[in-house]
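Exercise 7b. Backbone tokens:
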């Protein structure tokens, strides 16, 4: 998990001539402000620009996807908040098509350059609130990893609901967030509270979930066979669209 420097966000905003404080919901401006170059974008995604660290964390995510929802050569796979392609670099060779969606055009530009060797990727610039550019019933697997922490609760639920819409019958969805109920998650929650007084909180500061919250989103959206996995930090929730 990444802690976000208030001053670094402000410096990024000044580059674009944005001098006023931003609201959390201004997702595109916020994330463009911290991704002007590839190194800055990588640090914003994972706190490091080291490609080896990226590969290790991406491998762990791919293994989680394989174990929880499966990845098949015939799958069209969509990632919500693909960033610079940390996961897609390893996942794209395993599926028919990998669709990288992100609210930041800077992130998608970095992704396209980093993954230029992949022949089966498609990038889609989203509005930060839904997947309106994606056709209903066109995707086999939707996932969203280490992104929900940067979204308000309404966007979290709406992306789960949108995931159901774009999935084919029998399609799968997986999301995660750092859990308020784990020891490490609680420590991170308290660290953010103590590090940033209200007036100094960056608009992309990480916010926790509980297992109950994420389970309820899947249930209310209409998923079936909902299950969860809790690790040292993250709670992962996944389910299937009814046939």
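Sequence design result:
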């Amino acid at each position: 998990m990444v802690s976000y420097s208030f001053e670094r966000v402000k410096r990024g905003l000044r580059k674009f001539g944005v001098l006023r404080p931003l609201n959390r919901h201004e997702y595109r401006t916020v994330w463009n402000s911290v991704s002007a170059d590839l190194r800055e974008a990588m640090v914003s995604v994972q706190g490091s620009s080291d490609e080896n660290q990226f590969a290790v964390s991406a491998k762990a995510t791919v293994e989680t996807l394989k174990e929880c929802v499966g990845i098949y050569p015939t799958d069209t796979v969509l990632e919500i908040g693909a960033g610079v392609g940390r996961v897609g670099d390893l996942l794209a060779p395993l599926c028919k098509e990998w669709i990288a969606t992100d609210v930041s055009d800077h992130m998608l530009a970095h992704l396209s350059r980093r993954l230029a060797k992949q022949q089966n990727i498609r990038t889609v610039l989203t509005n930060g609130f839904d997947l309106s550019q994606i056709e209903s019933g066109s995707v086999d697997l939707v996932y969203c990893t280490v992104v929900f922490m940067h979204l308000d609760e309404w966007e979290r639920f709406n992306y789960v609901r949108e995931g159901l819409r774009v999935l084919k019958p029998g399609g799968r969805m997986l999301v995660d967030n750092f859990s308020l109920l784990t020891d490490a998650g609680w420590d991170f929650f308290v660290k953010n509270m103590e590090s940033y007084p209200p007036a100094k909180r960056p608009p992309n500061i990480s916010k926790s979930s509980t297992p109950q919250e994420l389970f309820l989103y899947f249930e209310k959206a209409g998923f079936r066979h909902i299950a969860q996995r809790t690790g040292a930090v993250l709670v992962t929730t996944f389910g299937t669209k009814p046939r």
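Instructor comment: The CA atoms of residues 12 and 114 lie 22 Å apart. The longest strand covers residues 167-178.
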